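Lesson 9: reading folded outputs for more than one chain in a single document. The general rule is that every protein is listed as its sequence immediately followed by its structure tokens, and records are never interleaved. Here is the first one.
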Amino acid sequence: MADTAKYKRILLKLSGEALMGDQGYGIDPGTITRIAQEIRDVHDLGVEIAIVVGGGNIFRGVALASKGMDRASADSMGMLATTINALALQDSLEKCNVFTRVMSAIEMNKIAEPFIRRRAIRHVEKGRVVIFAAGTGNPYFTTDSAAALRALEIKADAILKATKVDGIYDKDPAKHASATMFDRLTYIEVIQRDLRVMDTSAISLCRDSGVPIHVFNLHRPGNIARVVKGEKIGTIVCPDDKQAVGG
């Protein structure tokens, strides 16, 4: 396929777990370097890129809240974990000669710019990769919801959700050998089937705006660029009932 991009502006959603590689915790230098190089390759196609990164490799607020910690406090700690990951990703991208800005939903002016929608749009228009940290800045909202919200705010053409599996399945492929992957789904099908690829709030936001969601395997080298170029990999969640097909 020619080196042309299907989308002009994307929101890439990375889980915190994606950064830890084969480690059980933290950030694996080799893994984050590879991800940064793949983002650079997409950037070199002329695509405007924004990123939302999770914090599950360092801290999961929901998990601690389930054990008795105040949910708002636990979620605030999780937001700080996403900021650590955002700064690490920024460092790796800038070592690849990609100009990058970290914008935080929580004010921490010594290390990140505050999130201002118009400024974020201006950054991506100028060719800078913008990494959104600290989720939405509010407890009880996941980084999936933050990804959907930021995608709408910057008018992204699509959300690319990078995962550890090839797409969306009818059941967990790690537990069920008979699991079948979907090529396409509608937003309402994702909700009705309780597929949990993103939380319901995030899916609903995308449904209201019609922003497509591409779910694909981050661990297959070159997949980010393949999705951007329009290759048929992973699963797309889209608004057209006629295009969506079951597994």
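And here is the second record, again sequence then tokens.
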Amino acid sequence: MNENDTIEAPSGKDRADENFPVGSRLIARHLRPHVHAFYAFARNADDIADSPALPPAEKIARLNTMEDVLRGRRTEGSPSATMLRASLAQSGVTVTHAQDLLHAFRHDSLENRTPSWPALMEYCRYSAMPVGRYVLDLHGEGGGTWPHSDALCSSLQILNHLQDCADDFAELDRCYLPSDWLAEAGATVGDLTGERATPGLRRVFNKLLAKCDELNRAAGGLPREVRDRRLRMECGMIVGLARRLTRRLKRNDPVAGRVKLSKMDVMFTGIGCLRWIN
């Protein structure tokens, strides 16, 4: 790969395709470009790790290029890393959160099964928690907010895995459902190819959603801990949406079709988060 090559191959997904607000108008105007830069970096790295056309070694090489550009060891090759490097220099936020994301995407490039619940939470430590920690650091919030944020981001990650479980297996031969829970329930990854979830697969879904309930309860303390009023409302909104999506996944089958939030879900959650305005 030459110095001037661009290794990014965007999938076309952007902030509008996400379940939850990314740098919405609730975030202060002067901070939104930084949030968007962090998202663009994460989106491009995710697109590399999720590409069905790239072999693992090529994915790792491209992710390494992103890190080299991010750290200033290379001047070109990843526009989103260049943009984030400038953003971090301006905002003063540590590069660690972005590097942690790259750790998760390297994992995705090499591993396609999750052996256990602890392994899934370890994955969330790098794939999800850094996002919340970055936003909190950007706002100058204290580290005491991290445990609530970690719980929320982990819940969002697992909910997304459940939404995409059938597509992840069909397109990438990837499964985030804990393998030991599948075996215990008498289910296999092959069950994800059916028209609907088998009873065993449904038991695994329900077990994961019960864990999401626990994480959502822990995340409920986040808006109370956040000092910035606008961010407090954003956090309240996301906690509410996570709880609504958890309930939807309990009622609906992600194997039979994608389970997602409705406009009414968003509207009522938005109304509910107004209590965090003061």
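What the second record shows: The two ends are 53 Å apart (CA to CA).
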